[in-house]
Design a protein that fits this description.
Blueprint: E1 2-4, H1 11-24, E2 29-31, H2 38-48, E3 55-63, H3 87-102, E4 105-113, E5 125-132, E6 137-143, E7 150-157, E8 160-165, E9 170-175, E10 178-184, H4 191-205, H5 213-232, E11 236-237
Parallel strand pairs: 1-2, 3-6
Antiparallel strand pairs: 3-7, 4-5, 4-11, 5-6, 7-8, 8-9, 9-10
Length: about 240
């Protein structure tokens, strides 16, 4: 079973889905293809090699202008189906990439507002502070109302800084003492095709998809904590 992100809206539902697929002997994969973008794969290699030193911060924004096309009755315009503003459709992608790069998020503090949309009852801008179990802190912004599509992130370490831009197709690096950014050569890739090829291989030959149900449940846990934080105005721990 191949499921589009965010998989579910609650950890309880995610765990039920994982258990049902396991009991039925069905391969379960979730569509978080953005971790596969060339810049994000290269970032992971740099991190694993220690090229950035100790990572202190991560920041990212993933936004679009599609909020202006929403109309009453559309599922994206229903806060019950899309809680947290653009989190379920856009922000969840960066949540997955952040955790792929830096490990589990342990706590979040989030706010969401309606800034420009008037015809539908959803929040259109969300900002999130994140704490990671490994030590870094981060910021994630996501919005329905940007003038243009935005998908970029940056990692700031003690030895180097890295910027993934152009929807994850370009990567820039600046090492300590050399602040000018240098572009890192990247081979092109097709992340959407790659994840489907992997899923088909797991179905035919056995094996576990990179983004399994269990992996996706970690992202749902962050989403659920973000929604709670927006509602309560408090920092919320992300369950392990």
């Amino acid at each position: 079973m191949f499921v589009e992100k965010p998989f579910t809206l609650t950890v309880a539902d995610a765990r039920r889905a994982v258990a049902a697929c396991r009991q039925a002997g069905v391969v379960l994969a979730v569509g978080h293809q953005r971790r596969r973008h060339p810049a994000h794969r290269a970032l992971k290699r740099l991190l694993d090699a220690g090229e950035l030193g100790r990572v202190a911060q991560v920041e990212g924004n993933i936004s679009a202008d599609i909020g202006f096309t929403l109309k009453p009755g559309m599922w994206r315009a229903d806060p019950a189906d899309t809680p947290g503003g653009a989190m379920t459709n856009l922000g969840i992608h960066h949540v997955d990439t952040f955790q792929y790069l830096l490990g589990p998020v342990s706590r979040v503090m989030a706010v969401a507002r309606r800034v420009a949309l008037t015809g539908v009852p959803i929040q259109d801008v969300t900002g999130i502070l994140l704490e990671f179990e490994a030590g870094p802190v981060g910021y994630l912004g996501t919005s329905w109302i940007h003038a243009n599509r935005t998908a970029a992130l940056a990692l700031h370490g003690t030895e180097a800084q890295a910027w993934a831009e152009a929807d994850g197709s370009r990567l820039f690096l600046a090492r300590r003492g050399r602040p000018e950014r240098q572009e890192v050569p990247l081979a092109p890739a097709d992340p959407l095709v790659e994840q489907l090829v992997e899923f088909a291989r797991c179905v035919r030959e056995g094996g576990r998809p990179e983004v399994s149900g269990e992996e996706a449940t970690r992202n749902v846990a962050v989403l659920e904590a973000v929604v709670e934080s927006i509602a309560t105005g408090r920092a919320v721990a992300v369950p392990a």
